[in-house]
Design goal:
eight-stranded mixed beta sheet, Ribosomal Protein S5, domain 2, 2 domains, Alpha-Beta Plaits, binds (R)-mevalonate, 24% strand, 324 residues
């Protein structure tokens, strides 16, 4: 076994299909050039997590010590560790150092990237890095603790990178975008929320709407298929229209908020071809599709209402081991 190993995974934006993907609709998701890096170092006592964003947390190794109350921040990591142990990796005391360029609880896939990068670095420290398939299964154990009912879209994109058409239970399909001359602007409302709370709320509204909600889900699925064609054909105007329609459907199931709508309408009035929430909603981030010449205007338009805004580049590479 090596003394330490390091791995990273990308964040993501869901272009269309969040929430609907939980119940089997299609989602289109892209990995972005912001990554989260995890260094695992053996030694010390139990498990210690150090992160500039999440603070310092420690816990006994699973199965050792009294059943102490574990910090909720560490619980998903412990679920990943248990899953690794079930696959034959020995459980040793270690420190997990998380360095991230992805804001947490903002809909950009920070928790999935951390589960994936942790599982990859821990397995690599044992000299046997997980395959992409196993990485998905192990990281999903952590995501279930963090998210409740994850569709798997966040973990899949963190493992694979690129742009994917994702439907729960099916093999994801790589998309070759044909879009040129456009940029995706990401603006953070600065409002943090837990994905599991929003997912539960949206599902409860869908259930309360009964049969009517099946039409909303069906429309979301058709919209995502249209988005896939528009992205492949390079039809940015049509993709923008689809993003706006997707925002309406998400809003109809209670995923939006005043902060999100403010950013959406600011972007649209600054010339966005389309703008919508990305990720779970309520807070977190909004994405806007801009012609390259107009993205500066878009950035200016959101300054007052967002905690941070940036243009997102697509990351071809998914999870990877890092030298250090
Ligand atoms: C969160 O990034 C996406 C959701 O659809 C939840 C999920 O798919 O697991 C809201």
């Amino acid at each position: 076994m090596r003394r330490a190993a390091r791995a990273s995974a990308p964040g993501k934006v869901i272009i269309v299909g969040e929430h609907f993907v939980v119940r089997g609709s299609l989602a289109i998701v892209a990995a972005i050039g912001r990554r989260l890096r995890v260094t695992v170092r053996s030694g010390g006592k139990g498990i210690v997590l150090e992160s500039s964003m999440l603070g310092r947390h420690s816990a006994p190794l699973p199965g050792q010590g009294a059943a102490a109350k574990v910090s909720p921040v560490l619980e998903p990591y412990i679920a990943v560790l248990r899953s690794l142990a079930a696959r034959g990796y020995s459980v040793v005391p270690h420190t997990i150092l998380v360095e991230s360029g992805i804001p947490p609880r903002a809909g950009l896939g920070s928790s999935a990237a951390s589960m994936v990068a942790y599982a990859l670095s821990y397995s690599a420290m044992h000299g046997d890095p997980l395959s992409a398939e196993d990485l998905y299964s192990v990281a999903m154990e952590g995501e279930k603790i963090a998210h409740g009912k994850p569709s798997g879209v966040d973990v899949t994109i963190a493992v694979r990178g690129g742009v994917l058409a994702y439907r729960r239970g099916e093999n994801p399909v790589d998309i070759r975008p044909g879009l040129t001359g456009v940029t995706l602007l990401v603006a953070d409302t600065g409002v943090e929320r837990r994905t599991r709370d929003v997912v539960e709320h949206v599902l409860s509204i869908a259930d309360a709407l009964g049969e009517a909600s099946t039409y909303i889900y069906r429309a979301a699925d058709l919209i995502a298929r249209e988005a896939l064609h528009a992205i492949e054909k390079g039809d940015a105007e049509r993709l923008g229209l689809i993003m706006n329609a997707a925002q309406g459907l998400l809003s109809s199931l209670g995923a939006s908020s005043l902060e999100i709508e403010t950013l959406v309408y600011r972007m649209r009035s600054a010339g966005a071809l389309g703008a919508k929430l990305t990720g779970a909603g309520w807070g977190g981030c909004v994405i806007g599709l801009f012609k390259e010449g107009e993205v500066e205007r878009g950035l200016e338009s959101v300054v007052e209402s967002s905690s941070q805004a940036f243009t997102a580049s697509i990351a071809e590479e998914g999870a990877r081991l890092e030298e250090f």
